[in-house]
Write a structure and sequence with these properties.
Layout: H1 2-20, H2 24-41, H3 49-56, H4 65-78, H5 84-100, H6 104-125, H7 129-140, H8 145-161, H9 163-166, H10 170-181, H11 190-202, H12 222-239, H13 244-257, H14 264-281, H15 285-288, H16 291-295, H17 300-318, H18 324-340, H19 349-361, H20 367-382, H21 393-404, H22 409-426, H23 438-453, H24 459-476, H25 483-495, H26 501-512, H27 521-534, H28 540-556, H29 563-570, H30 582-598, H31 609-618, H32 625-640, H33 648-660, H34 669-685, H35 690-702, H36 708-724, H37 733-740, H38 746-762, H39 764-777, H40 782-795, H41 798-801, H42 805-815, H43 821-835, H44 839-848, H45 855-866, H46 877-888, H47 896-912, H48 921-930, E1 939-944, E2 947-952, H49 955-971, H50 978-988, H51 993-1009, H52 1011-1016, H53 1018-1030, H54 1039-1059, H55 1069-1080, H56 1082-1103
Antiparallel strand pairs: 1-2
Helix pairs in contact: 1-2, 1-3, 2-4, 4-6, 5-6, 6-8, 7-8, 8-12, 10-12, 12-14, 13-14, 13-17, 14-18, 17-18, 18-20, 19-20, 19-21, 20-22, 21-22, 21-23, 22-24, 23-24, 24-26, 25-26, 25-27, 26-28, 27-28, 27-29, 28-30, 30-32, 32-34, 33-34, 34-36, 35-36, 36-38, 37-38, 38-39, 38-40, 39-40, 40-43, ...
Pfam families: TIP120, TPR_CAND1
Organism: Electrophorus electricus (Electric eel)
GO biological process, one term: SCF complex assembly
Length: 1106
């Protein structure tokens, strides 16, 4: 490479030009070039690094500060690529010079140099912090403001770049920052405080205009110290999430007290630090809102709540400052505060509204300030009860209306959003309120209609004008009188415009759903066919919104919707009912259900293609969840219409026909379950038809000529019908189902097991004792019968099951030591779900079985606990929290399988209810990490014919451990020592295929969640990634080996792409070298390019959420 040759040629000359110090201008240019070379090609100059260091170090004592500054920059770039020996020489030199402290001028330079090295190579300087920090702390106490500034800046870089190593010193750093945050020796704030107190006492809000110049002093450098302290606190708050409670005790009051700071730049940094504190609090909301956490007293959220009055008191004066920057900071603060604590400002709205109006009315306000003020007002309006604002509507409406008319489109757009929310406030439809909205309607309507009619305006303004007018008609339509029809016709025009049609559809949906029953007859005749045409457009968001609009229109305006309109819509529906897009299908089916209820006559025309598509969808293995529920509702609504040729038996034949026609079996088992659920839904809607159909299904199961497919469907249908209808009047039923347990088909046996359990739910006294008796008396059928019992426990009501709990519990415990793992798993699930019925009695019993001498019993009870944990609150939660630690002690069990199921249970808790295990992490994590290690004693060789095959009995438990680690990243990140965590991720990168795949995913998550920690370990992470990407499969390997290696490479490349999103990752010499290797290898380059393309297209898709 020519660059490499040029760099090497000129390096020697540059070093001599720098060292000679003859001509300062030449020296400065040489230092600039050297710094640039080290930044771009530092890795190529490794052989020159010792000589570069030798020529640079003396320049740190140069008489010229410009030379020192450029030397520091060059050294910062050098440490990114130099070897360890050069790095050690540099650090030792700086430490020695700092210890000598020859002159204050050079000490300042050395502190700056250490801060620069920390910023560029924090992962390397960390091990020296124990020596560096005491020196920096000592220099903070010297009466030299410039030195103090540099010391605090050094602390900031340590906090950001060496989070682990700086941890023991964080309290010291915070104390220093808090001390110097208020360091202002040339200014006395006492008078101002007295004025503020006087103002509060009088209740008069005078327009306080702070002065930035009155006390300014050109020689006063103290503001730089305060700014450095604010920035350092920002760094501490942003990187030490686990210290949030401490921050709210110490840092929050100190920052709030400094909102009165006289220097604008310092004040902006104080606000920014508090914003960081609020942002750190928001992600933690889910676990901080946990009821258990709230019971414990102070959490960051409760502490913030208690400080809101103090924050508002400090802010409301600043909201009338001359400084635009200060007021913007206030609005950003209030916005974030309300996002973190919705409703927090309820008591303070009267104090804050004048400040917002001040900025909206201020003629000297910049556009950005008005936009921030409007944005803040919008968030406050959205997050508080309407009644809070009613006393202030008269003051708010004029400035907001004026902003809607502003010539700058961004202000107009934001003001329309506020207007829309104001409309909800002045007349909330979900509350009966005495507030009189009439004085404000004409102004709000007039400013919005003007924007709605304008053709030559910005796209965003057009859309927001439509949304705003939609809200006005929805909430105030009955007060618009003659203005309403004309406005609806404008909507009709917007509906015909490709750019505005989606927003207009949403606005019409809002209007159609209004409880005011707005008269839409003037536009329905033209609007519905237009909406119908949208269903064939290739725009998913438009289809979904249109289906929602049509549904609400048909539901609320059935008298005005004509058969011709409905026909136009029905003609477009068949292509929408397809497994390719289940959500669109669900919306289309819900529309048909609405039609069946309010326009039953129109369904006579669905017998062709629409019904054909619906029946095809029932047979799809993808039909489940919301779409399946919609389908069941539709069939019940359809059969209730009594439409000719769409009666109960007609629909039953359509659903079950293919199975009975002896044609090829349906391809997927799920299809039979869906058909059975539809059959049961029809039968519930037509109870008179039930006995005959149930009798026919029983005969189908008995009939020796029935195919397995017919038996499967009949059994599942019996189960679904029996779940809701008592079938105990069918004498043959028990025998027929038990005989099916002996079928040669595993699917039929499974269906019989499900059917018995589901039928039992319909009549527990009749069937549950029978099932228990069969479990005890039929050991060969035990596994299937236990599955029936599981279905009963999962589906029956708590009240219905309570009388049988003791009998079921006793029976289950007899089988929890079964040698067959599949049976034990079913027993464990039954035990867990049974425990939920009477947790106070049964949970202590489960805990008692941890002392069992049988490893099978211990694994069963630990697995049972997994089934007591769900992601929503349950009565068992407080009891479980008290004893889950006992169950997790099985992570130390001598039995490998018990430890594995303990990890699976831990993972379930970490995923579904992290509050159960957060406080146990300190004791659990060492055992968890212990299970990530490869154990040679668990690896054995098995001979398979002429081949020897290696079996790793520890692989499953390692996978379970790594899965737990992945879950903890999402649920308990703040409780993890990320560097210890990364140690085990590094090991996982060199493990088995399955574990590598998991650790690649973890690396991608970590790159987003903890970029600075990952950056410190980057060099150690790159090597195993490179090894995976460059591994070659033996030429004679089977196809699966090639596929696995290809998938490994792709996953490793995704991890590399994620690592490269970290700022400065590319500056790592090893990463840079690996990138070059990827670029020069066509196969790797192609994979990498495709991953980056996929990533950017995924980002584009996620943006299309409309």
């Amino acid at each position: 490479m020519i660059v490499c040759v040029v760099c090497k040629k000129i390096t020697g000359r540059l070093t001599s030009a720098i060292a000679k110090q003859e001509d300062v201008s030449v020296q400065l240019e040489a230092l600039d070039i050297m710094a640039d070379m080290l930044c771009r090609q530092g890795g190529l100059l490794v052989n020159f690094h010792p000589s570069i260091l030798s020529c640079l170090l003396p320049q740190l004592t140069s008489a010229r500060l410009a030379v020192r500054k450029r030397t520091i920059i060059a050294l910062g770039h050098l440490v990114m690529s130099c070897g360890n020996l050069v790095f050690v020489d540099l650090i030792e030199h700086l430490l020695a010079e700092l210890s000598r402290n020859d002159s204050m001028s050079t000490t300042r330079t050395y502190i700056q140099c250490i801060a620069a090295i920390s910023r560029q190579a924090g992962h390397r300087i960390g091990e020296y912090l124990e020596k560096i920090i005491p020196l920096v702390v000592k220099f903070c106490n010297i009466d030299d403001d410039e030195l103090r500034e540099y010391c605090i800046q050094a602390f900031e870089s340590f906090v950001r770049r060496c989070p682990k190593e700086v941890y023991p010193h964080v309290p010291t750093v915070i104390n220093i920052c808090l001390k110097y945050l208020t360091y202002d020796p040339n200014y006395n704030y006492d008078d101002e405080d007295e004025d503020e107190n006087a103002m509060d006492a009088d209740g008069v809000d005078e327009d306080y205009q702070g002065s930035d110049d009155e006390y300014s002093d050109d020689d006063d450098m103290s503001w730089k110290v305060r700014r450095a302290a604010a920035k350092c606190l920002d760094a501490v708050v942003s990187t030490r999430h686990e210290m949030l409670p401490e921050f709210y005790r110490t840092v929050s009051p100190a920052l709030t007290a400094r909102f009165k700071e006289r220097e604008e730049n310092v004040k902006a940094d104080v606000f920014h630090a508090y914003l960081s504190l609020l942002k750190q609090t928001r992600p933690a909301q889910s676990w901080l809102c946990d009821p258990d956490a709230m019971e414990q007293g102070e959490t960051p959220l409760t502490m913030l709540q208690s400080q809101v009055p103090m924050i508002v008191k400090a802010l409301h004066k600043q909201m009338k400052e001359k400084s635009v920057k200060t007021r913007q900071c206030c609005f950003n603060m209030l916005t974030e505060l309300v996002n973190v604590l919705p409703g927090a400002l309820t008591q303070h709205i009267p104090v804050l509204i004048p400040g917002i109006i001040f900025s909206l009315n201020d003629k000297s306000s910049s556009s950005n300030l008005k936009i921030d003020a409007l944005s803040c007002l919008y968030v406050i309006l959205c997050n508080h009860q309407p009644q809070v604002f009613h006393p202030h509507v008269q003051a708010l409406v004029p400035p907001v209306v004026a902003c809607v008319g502003d010539p700058f489109y961004k202000i107009t757009s934001e003001a329309l959003l506020v207007t829309q929310q104001l409309v909800r406030v002045i007349r909330p439809l979900d509350q009966t309120d005495a507030f009189d909205a009439s004085p404000y309607i004409s102004d709000l309507f007039a400013c919005t209609i003007k924007r709605l009619k304008a053709a030559d305006i910005d796209q965003e303004v057009k859309e927001r004008a439509i949304s705003c007018m939609g809200q006005i008609i929805c909430n105030l339509g009955d007060r618009l009188g003659a203005d309403l029809p004309g406005t609806l016709h404008i909507f009709l025009e917007r509906l015909k415009n490709e750019i505005t049609r989606l927003t207009t559809v949403k606005a019409l949906t809002l209007i159609a759903g209004s409880p005011l029953k707005i008269d839409l007859r003037p536009v329905l005749g033209e609007a519905v066919p237009i909406l119908a045409s949208f269903l064939r457009k290739n725009q998913r968001a438009l289809k979904l919104s249109t289906l929602a609009a049509l549904d609400i229109l048909v539901k609320n305006y059935s008298d005005s919707v004509t058969p011709a309109m409905i026909d136009a819509v029905l003609a477009e529906l068949p292509p929408l009912i397809s497994e390719t897009d289940m959500h669109v299908s669900q919306m289309a089916i819900s529309f048909l259900t609405t039609l069946a209820r309010v326009h039953p006559d129109s369904l006579a025309k669905i017998g062709g293609s629409i019904l054909g598509e619906l029946i095809a969808l029932v047979r799809s293995p993808l039909l489940q969840g919301g779409a399946l529920s919609a389908m069941l509702e539709f069939f019940q609504a359809l059969v209730a219409t009594g439409t000719a040729s769409l009666g109960y038996m007609d629909l039953l034949r359509m659903l079950t026909g293919p199975v009975y026609a002896q044609s090829a079996a349906l391809t997927h088992k799920q299809s039979y379950y869906s058909i059975a659920k539809c059959v049961a839904a029809l039968t519930r809607a037509c109870p008179k038809e039930g006995p005959a159909v149930v009798g026919q299904f029983i005969q189908d199961v008995k009939n020796s000529r029935s195919t397995d497919s017919i038996r499967l469907l009949a059994l599942l249908s019996l189960g679904e019908v029996g779940h809701h209808v008592d079938l105990s009047s069918q004498p043959e039923l028990k025998t027929v189902i038990l005989d099916a347990f002996s079928s040669a088909s595993e699917e039929v046996k499974s269906a019989a097991s499900y059917a018995l359990g589901s039928i039992s739910v319909g009549n527990l006294p009749e069937y549950l004792p029978f099932v228990l008796q069969e479990i005890s008396g039929q050991p060969k059928r035990q596994y299937l019968l236990l599955h029936s019992l599981k279905e009963i426990i999962s589906s029956a009501s708590v009240a219905g099951l309570k009388p049988y709990v003791e009998n079921v519990w006793t029976l289950l415990l007899k089988h929890c030591e079964c040698t067959e793992e599949g049976t034990r798993n079913v027993v464990a699930e039954c035990l867990g779900k049974l425990t939920l019925i009477d947790p106070e009695t049964l949970l202590p019993r489960l805990k008692g079985y941890l002392l069992s001498g049988s490893s099978y019993a211990r694994s069963s009870v630990v697995t049972a606990v997994k089934f007591t944990i769900s992601d929503h609150p349950q009565t068992i939660d407080p009891l479980l929290k008290n004893c889950i630690g006992d169950f997790l002690k099985t992570l130390e069990d001598p039995d490998l399988n018990v430890r594995r199921v303990a990890l699976v249970t831990f993972n379930s808790a970490a995923h579904n209810k992290p509050s159960l295990i957060r406080d146990l992490l300190d004791t659990v994590l060492p055992h968890l990490y212990n299970e990530t290690k490869v154990r040679k004693e668990l690896i054995r060789e098995v001979e398979m014919g002429p081949f020897k095959h290696t079996v790793d009995d520890g692989l499953d438990i390692r996978k379970a451990a790594f899965e737990c680690m992945y879950t903890l990243l999402d649920s308990c990140l703040d409780r993890l020592d990320i560097f210890e965590f990364l140690n085990h991720v590094e090991d996982g990168l060199k493990d088995h295929y399955d574990i590598k795949m998991l650790t690649f995913l973890m690396l991608a998550r970590l790159s987003t969640l903890c970029p600075s920690a990952v950056l410190q370990r980057l060099d150690r992470l790159v090597e195993p990634l490179r090894a995976t990407c460059t591994t070659k499969v033996k030429a004679n390997s089977v196809k699966q080996e090639f596929e696995k290696q290809d998938e490994l490479k792709r996953s490793a490349m995704r991890a590399v792409a994620a690592l490269l999103t970290i700022p400065e990752a590319e500056k790592s010499p090893l990463m840079s070298e690996f990138q070059s290797q990827i670029s020069s290898n066509p196969e790797l380059a192609a994979i990498f390019d495709s991953i980056q393309r996929d990533s950017s297209s995924a980002n584009m898709e996620s943006m299309d959420t409309s």
